[in-house]
Design a protein that fits this description.
Length: 55
């Protein structure tokens, strides 16, 4: 789960770079929304991983 969150986080960053640079101006707001959604998912996954980690 954490791996998927990181992958989608990277995809959102790339989409954000392309959107914010003017290449895909219409997709900038969508990329920003995806970025924040996956950032939240990454934090949730990391916390879940730390809480359920067994030694």
């Amino acid at each position: 789960m954490l791996r998927y969150a990181i992958i989608f986080f990277i995809i959102a960053i790339v989409a954000g770079i392309l959107g914010f640079s003017g290449i895909a101006g219409g997709a900038a707001s969508i990329a920003q929304m995806i970025f924040y959604v996956f950032l939240i998912l990454l934090v949730i996954s990391a916390v879940k991983h730390l809480l359920t980690k067994t030694v």
